[in-house]
Amino acid sequence: MTPAPIVISMGDPAGVGPELAAAAWALSATAGLPPFAIVGSRRVIEQAALRRGIHAVVTAIRDTDDAAAVFDTAIPVIDIGDGTYAPGEPDDAGAALALASLTHATELTRTGKASALVTGPIAKSRLAHIGFDYPGQTEFVGAACGVAATDAVMMLAGPHLRVVPVTVHVPLGDVPGLLTTDLIVRRARIAAAALARDFGLAAPRLAIAGLNPHAGEDGRMGHEDIAIIAPAVAALRAAGIDARGPLPADTMFHAQARETYDVAICMYHDQALIPIKVLDFDEGVNVTLGLPIVRTSPDHGTAFGIAGTGAARPGATVAAIAMAGACAARRA
Predict the structure, then answer these.
(1) Helix, strand, or coil (residue 197)
(2) How distant, in Å, are the alpha carbons of 141, 185, 191, 239, 248 from that of 188?
(3) Where are the domains of the chain?
(4) Do domains 1-150+291-332 and 153-288 have the same CATH topology?
């Protein structure tokens, strides 16, 4: 069965999202990307493409059914309203357009009109200014799909590494109090199930990072590794999941160590994101696990400072579309 086209929310029109979506279309044949449609403003996409040096036809379509028919010769855009293209100059009108794009693209995917959702970068502070009450797009998409925030799990994936942070956008000082054995087990189980379902890994191997230096060194550098993380590893193993740890995080990410696992379950944001951004900065993909839909996103922000200059590299957007397509094909 051929999956429906993918939809891409264009992100903030003042950021790099619109131009990188257009750049991904220009690279689609050589990169082997499946058909997709951009949800947003046709005029913004057209102007962003031209600023990027992409002289392409940008065609407004009514819905995803029309995307595949025009994809080879034009950039298909589900036009949800006019917008202003002013790269590097974010404003509330642009944030509202970005939110409308995200909302419509999520609904198209949730209802099966699209096989996967790729979300363009947004500015959380701008969205909060217009009433967006979510920490980020992951939580918004999860809520739209009826999935609890604790069950919408963020995984960052690239050619060299996959990581899942157990706690995400919280102050570092709050992390020890937020970690529980149940939370680690739940997120690790969701990760294992998603790797089997969407990535074709029948028996995924999980490396569970410790919280403290040297994984606590038998309690001399903190008690969380013994009291919270070790019981989670034991519970995962009892459930038949190939998990080991808690492991010292400072020795988990060199090349030889990475060969021993399929995903690293990390205790906090930077423990997960620093290594993957070192290894896979231009090809990192944010994947939301635990959803009834496939959702990916390039692992970078709006980059207002370089929007419209041609300096933004499209690798992560191309990788996000390719990964979304591969996951959707496995589900189909």
Answers:
(1) helix
(2) 20, 5, 5, 11, 18
(3) 1-150+291-332, 153-288
(4) yes
pLDDT tens sequence across 60-108 = 998 899 999 999 999 999 999 889 999 999 999 999 999 999 999 999 9
The CA-CA-CA angle for residues 200, 201, 207, to 5°, reads 145
Give the dihedral of Cα atoms 115, 330, 290, 79; nearest 10 deg.
-10
DSSP state of 281: T
The CATH topology of domain 1-150+291-332 is Isopropylmalate Dehydrogenase (3.40.718)
Residue 225 is classified by DSSP as: I
Q: What is the CATH number of domain 153-288?
A: 3.40.718.10
3-state helix, strand, coil in the chain (%, to 5): 45, 15, 40
What residue spans of the chain are helical by DSSP H? 17-26, 28-31, 42-52, 67-70, 92-110, 124-129, 137-144, 175-178, 181-199, 224, 230-238, 255-258, 269-280, 315-331
Cα–Cα nearest to 156, from 260, 330, 298: 298
**Could you give the C-alpha distances from 246 to 85, 118, 174, 216, in angstroms and in order?**
48, 33, 20, 9
SS3 100: helix
Q: CB neighbours (10 Å) of residue 146?
A: 10
Distance CA 215, CA 212 (A): 5
Q: Under 8 Å CB-to-CB from 95, ≥6 apart: which residues?
A: 12, 122, 123, 126, 127, 129, 130, 132
What six digits make up the tokens of 227? 């009291």
- pTM for this one? 0.93
Q: Are 169 and 270 in contact (CB under 8 A)?
A: no
Encoding tokens for residue 45? 């996409």
How confident is the model at residue 2, as a pLDDT? 65
